[in-house]
Amino acid sequence: MATETKTGLDQQTIDIIKATVPVLEEHGTEITKVFYQRMFEGHPELKNIFNQTNQRKGDQSKALAGAVYAAAYNIDKLETILPTVKQISQKHKSLNIQPEHYPIVGKYLLLAMKEVLGDAADDAVIGAWERAYGVIASVFIETEKSMYKEMTDTVGGWTGFRNFKVIKKVKESDVITSFYFEPADNNPFPSYQAGQYITVKAEIEGEPHVHLRQYSLSCAPDEGYYRISVKREDAINHQPAGIVSNYLHETLDVGSILPITAPSGDFVLNQTDDRPLVLMSGGVGLTPMMSMLETVVKQQPEREVYFIHAAQSGNVHAMRDAVKEITDNSSHVSSFVIYDRPTNEDKLMNNHDKEGYIDEEWLTSVLPSYDANFYFCGPAPFMRAMYQLLKGRQVEDCNINYEFFGPASSITG
């Protein structure tokens, strides 16, 4: 007689799920690729939710494979993956994922497993996974239900998309432009935590489906508006131009209307910690760092802050003057600029503190110690380098905070 566990799954089911972990490690990405292909064939309307650029790059398949693997490995102790569940649920909330989406995902995930694994996915394996998926899905549904309720209970809060109006458009560099938003209905709208993001809905003429993109809010909360700062992604090295970023740069102007979601995300500034705060960014990754910087100087004015930004050159360096003004007006803020390829003007004007990259020797020379709270954001190679640098200095995971919308293994692996 099978015994039940606190997940509601019998031991035989758990044993089967755990036994499939090595198979998932080997075939997980292939399974999820087939899953997305089959699901979009059966439900093309879901292309309006999932980022098709990430689909082409394979990022979404890798992320889903990692989540499935983690759930399988911890099926008898799902509480250990609750932080991951909450992180993914924040993304789901920003995309307005609903309970009715989960049975669709489950159906095509099981079909993909059967297609890829063949005879290895017999009736016992598929049956076990069907039961396990039901448990895992219920954890996500309940978590997201709580998040949606919290937002609707907030003054000015909403679920789904709400129209906001562009009230200001500012060119920050050759490639980055800031957009300032207020609600089109002029009704109240909620605050947020420094580091969170919103999802924008771009309905672009000639495009077969809606495009959803996440952009970090780039200013401190409670300024009377939301602000995002968007890098225009140009076509380069056989990579096509960014559909949404170019749409925003070229089409959105003062008075334009854009549907957005309420703020989401768990990459947020810890204001209960009074140790030194180190904010490191690469390229457009400075957007959540700016929100954190503007927030900490207002709410923790005595806290030591080290703001370190890496860019290719001064031409693409956004918000330099804003950071300089904050640094000049606060004795507790130190800021540093690193250019990979400084221009002759950068060199002549001493626009940067270091040429090249952020390395351990230099970082050690500007920080008083590594007993600090670190936040960083930027392109994947930058993120990987910062993570490895900090781990090499024995900085604990609880003090390493980063924002990355792809699979974490590409940063920490």
From TrEMBL:
Residues 156-413 are annotated as: Reductase. GO terms for molecular function: FAD binding; heme binding; metal ion binding; nitric oxide dioxygenase NAD(P)H activity; oxygen binding; oxygen carrier activity. Keywords: Detoxification, Dioxygenase, FAD, Flavoprotein, Heme, Iron, Metal-binding, NAD, NADP, Oxidoreductase, Oxygen transport, Transport. CDD domains: flavohem_like_fad_nad_binding, Yhb1-globin-like. Its EC number is 1.14.12.17. Is involved in NO detoxification in an aerobic process, termed nitric oxide dioxygenase (NOD) reaction that utilizes O(2) and NAD(P)H to convert NO to nitrate, which protects the bacterium from various noxious nitrogen compounds. Therefore, plays a central role in the inducible response to nitrosative stress. This is Flavohemoprotein. The gene is hmp.
